[in-house]
Amino acid sequence: MSLIQPFRALRPAPGRAAEVLAPPYDVLSSAEARERAKGKPWSFLHVSKAEIDLDPAVDPYDRAVYAKAAENLARMVAEGVLIRDPRPRYYVYRLTWRDRTQTGLAAVASVADYETNRIRKHELTTPVKEDDRVRQIEAVNAETGPVMLAYPAAPEVDALLASAASRAPDVDVTADDGVRHQLWVVADQAAIAALTRAVDALPALYIADGHHRSAAAARVAKSRGGSDSHEHFLSVLFPHHQMTILDYNRVIRDLHGQSPEQLLARLRESFAVEPADRPVRPAASGEFGMYLAGRWYRLAIRPGLVPQDDPIGRLPITLLTRYAIEPLFGIADQRKDKRIDFVGGARGLEELERRVSSGEMAVAFALYPTQMDDLMAVADAGKIMPPKSTWFEPKLADGMVNHVLD
After folding, report:
1. How far, in Å, CA of 208 to CA of 378, rounded?
2. How many structural domains does the chain have?
3. Are both 129 and 24 inside the same structural domain?
4. b vs e for 354-366, b when ≥16 Cβ sit within 10 Å of the residue's Cβ?
5. pTM of the predicted model as reported, rounded to 2 decimal places
6. pLDDT digits over 241-257, tens only?
7. Which residues have a Cβ under 8 Å from the Cβ of 193 and sit 6 or more positions away?
8. Residues 343-379: pLDDT tens digits?
């Protein structure tokens, strides 16, 4: 079985993509999705966040939500807003955000290769979120949110994608967040075969974003069995060198009984600490910004504390956790401790200042972004990244391509 296969995408009819495309289901709250979908009857949020069409008191995990998602998807098909390609195809998907472009391949990836770790993971999943995706897939009989995969250096794949994207795109939409989404349909059988061979020659693929979606797809495949479409999950593969991971920063509610001066003194045991006259955006993995008591500081971990041969131990978040968050703030489990929160880099360093200056939080830490090479090294070692280590931008749009389970 090949690592990837073409598929018959269910996707917006010509000229309808701007009405359909929506942010991924997991980046908006129910309230945000409800507001975003106002006056947009064909927004894919009516499928991916179907609770927006029910009473706000309804639990997002209620069975009525999944039933509503199925009803809304069926209506979009019946009204011709979404159509399904007659034969299996690949789709070149390009994202342009700010001054960066990444060009990937929408395909369905092998569940068997996911199970044997040729498609590699770096995050733990939570049962509640995994169950949610299983119920969604089962209700709508389709995978409606692609998994973002990364592939290692592969000039042949890059060249094939560039060739397929050399003509005018079939879809070209700029979303309200400024991200441009373009799609090229690859129907030529020789091009399809060449892409399948080139990707199949790769040693591995890496899940960048979408661990719950891939885990849910594997569970559905196991429960259904017998059908080829169930044995693959919806994915978009990007070259790892084009992908952007933003910083994923930390804010902490209190100083754990210390004064700012006491905290600074304890930090100096493991870090070089220098005051800064402007916000500090770290320029290297051993560097951190800290906003405390109305002032920014630059922290640099002492070099002898960085284990170069440990792919997890050398990560910025591991260093900050090991030498600050755990010993100085008494926070042992960042997933569960309510004293710590996470701020995606897209919100900027100003958000860190705002949350501390408002009195909501006592201190903020800015981190250097995790690098794709480090993520892949962790996955190759069969290890799990610390929680909230990566924030990928830009995000794929829900609704661009959907994988129907025949």
Report:
1. 12
2. 2
3. yes
4. bbbeeeebbbbbb
5. 0.90
6. 999 999 999 999 999 99
7. none
8. 988 888 999 999 999 999 999 999 999 999 999 999 9
